[in-house]
Every structure is written in C-alpha cells, then in structure tokens.
C-alpha cells in the first residue's frame, strides 16, 4: 500500500471516529437535557431557544434557525410549542409585518437559571478529569476543523 493510500485510509478512519464521538456526545447531551427538562414540557432544542431569547430578546425565528443551524420548520414548531407552554410571546415586527419578534415571558425567564445549571452540570461531567489546557486545545482543534470545513460550502 502506498503512503498516499495509507494516509487517505487514516484520514477516513479518523473522520469516522471523530464524527462518531461528536455525534454520541451530542446525543448524550440531548438525552440529559430532555430528561431534566421533561417536567417543564421542553424537549429537543427548545431550551437553546430560551437561552438565545434570554441573551437576545426580540430575535426572530429566522435568527434562531440561522444561529443554531436548524430547519425553519423545526424552529416554527418549537417556538409555537414554547408559546403554548407560556415561555415566550410573539410580537409583530413594526418594520416588517411578516416577521415576529420573540420574547421570554416571566415564566420563561424563571426557567433560565435552571437551564444554565443543567448546562453547567453537563459540561462539568463532560470535562471531568481534563486539564484546562486539554479543554482549550480541544476547542482550538475543533474550531480549526470547523474553519477548514466551512470552505466546502
């Protein structure tokens, strides 16, 4: 086997293992958050939308879709559900009647500290046993890989 073929095979194996590890971590995080937010009626990426609206009140559904790389239909269904649960409200954008600006209700704002606590609990568990340098290096490597891959689009 030539060096070129061996390198290609190693890249393919690395890519597979990396994708699998990231995918598993993401699924585990979703499961953790879903289990802990079930009593609030929240699932999937809905908690991320609550956090986003806490940081950026008045954001649109389009903003949420772009920011989290989510399908617009998913965002529409999720925000409708959050509105039905009383966590958010919609206001028509005065500058664009086709757009709705989304805001947290008091009920939604009260949930934010609990969501952050769960996120911190998950993150603490995920990095347990790693040094600060290892965490920072991992992030740098992943960010470089994201940058490299963004040139494909």
Verbal overview:
A three-stranded antiparallel sheet has the order 1-3-2. The chain has one domain (3-150): Arc Repressor Mutant, subunit A. The protein is built from six helices and three strands; from the N terminus they run ααβααββαα. The protein is 69% helix and 11% strand. It is mainly α and 153 residues long. A hairpin with a 2-residue loop joins β2 and β3 (96-104). α3 (61-67) packs across α4 (72-84).
Straight-line distance between termini: 32 Å
Strand order of the largest sheet: 1-3-2
Determine the number of helices (DSSP H or I, runs of at least 4 residues). 6
CATH superfamily: Winged helix-like DNA-binding domain superfamily/Winged helix DNA-binding domain
- Order of SSEs: HHEHHEEHH
**What's the overall geometry?**
globular
The chain-level mean pLDDT equals 93
Give the gist of this structure:
This protein has 153 residues and is mostly helical.
């Amino acid at each position: 086997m030539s060096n070129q073929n061996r390198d290609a095979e190693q890249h393919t194996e690395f890519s597979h293992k990396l994708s699998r590890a990231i995918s598993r971590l993401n699924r585990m995080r979703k499961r953790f958050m879903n289990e802990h937010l079930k009593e609030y009626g929240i699932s999937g990426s809905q908690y991320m939308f609550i956090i986003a609206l806490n940081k950026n009140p008045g954001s649109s559904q389009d903003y949420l879709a772009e920011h989290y790389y989510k399908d617009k239909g998913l965002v529409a269904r999720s925000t409708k559900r959050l509105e039905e649960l009383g966590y958010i409200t919609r206001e028509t954008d005065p500058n664009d009647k086709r757009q709705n600006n989304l805001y947290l209700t008091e009920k939604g704002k009260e949930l934010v500290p609990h969501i952050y606590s769960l996120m911190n609990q998950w993150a603490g568990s995920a990095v347990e046993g790693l040094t600060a340098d290892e965490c920072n290096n991992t992030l740098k490597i992943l960010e470089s890989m994201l940058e490299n891959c963004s040139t494909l689009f």
